[in-house]
Design a protein that fits this description.
Length: 106
Amino acid sequence: MKRSGSTQKIYESIKDSPSGSVWGVGTDLNFVKRIASEFKDKTVIPLCESSCADMEKISLEKLKESLLSITSGKKSELKYEISVSSKYSENAKKALKKMIEIVEGN
Protein backbone atom coordinates (compact mmCIF):
# COMPACT_ATOMS: atom_id res chain seq x y z
CA MET A 1 0.00 0.00 0.00
CA LYS A 2 1.38 3.41 -0.97
CA ARG A 3 0.97 6.30 1.49
CA SER A 4 2.23 9.84 1.53
CA GLY A 5 2.21 12.68 4.00
CA SER A 6 4.18 14.86 6.34
CA THR A 7 6.88 13.40 8.55
CA GLN A 8 4.35 13.51 11.39
CA LYS A 9 1.90 11.48 9.28
CA ILE A 10 4.65 8.98 8.43
CA TYR A 11 5.60 8.71 12.10
CA GLU A 12 1.99 8.20 13.21
CA SER A 13 1.33 5.62 10.48
CA ILE A 14 4.31 3.53 11.52
CA LYS A 15 3.60 3.96 15.23
CA ASP A 16 0.00 2.79 14.76
CA SER A 17 0.87 -0.10 12.43
CA PRO A 18 0.86 -3.70 13.59
CA SER A 19 3.97 -5.33 14.97
CA GLY A 20 5.90 -7.08 12.20
CA SER A 21 4.82 -4.65 9.49
CA VAL A 22 7.38 -3.53 6.91
CA TRP A 23 7.81 0.08 5.79
CA GLY A 24 9.87 1.69 3.04
CA VAL A 25 10.31 5.36 3.89
CA GLY A 26 11.54 7.99 1.44
CA THR A 27 12.55 11.00 3.51
CA ASP A 28 15.56 12.26 5.43
CA LEU A 29 17.77 9.32 6.41
CA ASN A 30 18.25 10.52 10.00
CA PHE A 31 14.47 10.55 10.49
CA VAL A 32 14.17 7.04 9.04
CA LYS A 33 16.95 5.75 11.31
CA ARG A 34 15.29 7.36 14.34
CA ILE A 35 11.89 5.77 13.71
CA ALA A 36 13.52 2.42 12.89
CA SER A 37 15.27 2.45 16.28
CA GLU A 38 12.13 3.62 18.08
CA PHE A 39 9.84 0.97 16.57
CA LYS A 40 12.01 -2.14 16.78
CA ASP A 41 8.96 -4.39 16.37
CA LYS A 42 8.58 -3.13 12.77
CA THR A 43 10.94 -3.16 9.81
CA VAL A 44 11.66 0.36 8.57
CA ILE A 45 13.76 0.54 5.40
CA PRO A 46 15.15 3.81 3.99
CA LEU A 47 14.41 4.31 0.30
CA CYS A 48 17.55 6.40 -0.11
CA GLU A 49 20.89 6.01 1.60
CA SER A 50 21.86 9.65 1.98
CA SER A 51 21.16 12.38 4.48
CA CYS A 52 20.00 15.85 3.59
CA ALA A 53 22.95 18.14 4.29
CA ASP A 54 20.65 21.13 4.63
CA MET A 55 18.37 19.37 7.12
CA GLU A 56 21.42 18.53 9.25
CA LYS A 57 22.14 22.27 9.61
CA ILE A 58 18.85 22.83 11.44
CA SER A 59 18.92 22.92 15.22
CA LEU A 60 16.40 23.93 17.88
CA GLU A 61 18.52 26.97 18.71
CA LYS A 62 18.61 28.12 15.06
CA LEU A 63 14.86 27.56 14.74
CA LYS A 64 14.28 29.64 17.87
CA GLU A 65 16.52 32.44 16.56
CA SER A 66 14.74 32.38 13.22
CA LEU A 67 11.24 32.54 14.75
CA LEU A 68 12.24 35.33 17.14
CA SER A 69 13.73 37.32 14.28
CA ILE A 70 10.43 37.03 12.37
CA THR A 71 8.39 38.19 15.35
CA SER A 72 10.67 41.20 15.87
CA GLY A 73 9.01 42.78 12.82
CA LYS A 74 12.32 44.20 11.61
CA LYS A 75 13.32 42.92 8.19
CA SER A 76 16.95 43.85 8.92
CA GLU A 77 16.97 41.39 11.84
CA LEU A 78 15.74 38.34 9.92
CA LYS A 79 17.97 35.31 10.39
CA TYR A 80 18.46 32.48 7.93
CA GLU A 81 16.30 34.12 5.29
CA ILE A 82 16.05 32.14 2.07
CA SER A 83 15.18 33.68 -1.24
CA VAL A 84 14.21 31.87 -4.41
CA SER A 85 14.51 33.41 -7.85
CA SER A 86 11.28 33.98 -9.74
CA LYS A 87 12.54 31.41 -12.25
CA TYR A 88 11.82 28.71 -9.64
CA SER A 89 9.29 30.28 -7.27
CA GLU A 90 6.14 29.64 -9.35
CA ASN A 91 6.86 25.94 -9.74
CA ALA A 92 7.86 25.76 -6.07
CA LYS A 93 4.48 27.25 -5.10
CA LYS A 94 2.71 24.65 -7.26
CA ALA A 95 4.71 21.85 -5.62
CA LEU A 96 3.96 23.14 -2.11
CA LYS A 97 0.25 23.46 -2.88
CA LYS A 98 0.21 19.90 -4.23
CA MET A 99 1.98 18.58 -1.13
CA ILE A 100 -0.59 20.30 1.09
CA GLU A 101 -3.44 18.84 -1.00
CA ILE A 102 -1.96 15.35 -0.65
CA VAL A 103 -1.49 15.69 3.11
CA GLU A 104 -4.98 17.10 3.61
CA GLY A 105 -6.50 14.45 1.38
CA ASN A 106 -7.89 16.87 -1.24
